[in-house]
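Aim 2, interim progress: modelling of the iron/sulfur cluster-bound target.
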Amino acid sequence: MENFSEPMGLLIDNTKCIGCRACQTACKQWNNLPAEKTTFFGGEGYQNPKDLSGSTYTLIKFHEIIENNKIKDWGFWKKQCRHCIDPACVAACPVPGVLEKKTYGPVAWDDTKCLGCPLCKEACPFNIPRFTTDINPKIRKCNMCNDRLEEGLEPACVKACPTGATIFGKREELLKIAEKRLQEEPDKYFKYIYGKDDLDTSVLYISCFDLEKIKGYPKD
Ligand code: SF4
Ligand code: SF4
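Predicted structure of the complex, ligand included:
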């Protein structure tokens, strides 16, 4: 049963993120994903664990923007599948039905026929798909909590976020909210809506700094 008849999406606003990682934890809990043994990662992003994996579908990273040897700005950034409007992963997958763009937003997966080839990962402009580590690897990535959406519930990360840094709604309405925030507080935001002004995606970002300044972005 589909409860959402219009294209839905997420708006992620890093000016509201406090880096608590409640979203990361909620994602693990809802998807029943095991913890990973990690050590502190002191490279670009400072996140823990170091990267997305078959058991980590979203990550909060921390970035400093350095200009003239000084910290010009800093903020968090939530890495996850962008749920592209025209997803390259779906086009690249040789097996029909493994990946599917739902009319209401998510690019969902059903791994029963996944070959682990991994053409979806190679095609993704954001380097998102990951795989299980068993002998027959299967795709793993954020599916926008499609099982919750089918029950009319918002994604687990959205429900857990205490500050409203990640909100869920109709993509058209999220775009209006993003435009309004940029218009009303031009000094607070970099004037760009990621997911609208570049590749069209169901996940939109607005940010206090230009995300393109993050080393390795958008693939890292
Ligand atoms: S971000 Fe990558 S994995 Fe997610 S829908 Fe787009 S192409 Fe597919
Ligand atoms: S790894 Fe699985 S989901 Fe990805 S392209 Fe291959 S069959 Fe499709």
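Residues 8-83+146-213 form a domain with the Alpha-Beta Plaits fold (CATH 3.30.70.20). Residues 92-93, 95, 98-99, 114-120, 139 surround iron/sulfur cluster (ligand 2) (CB under 6 Å).
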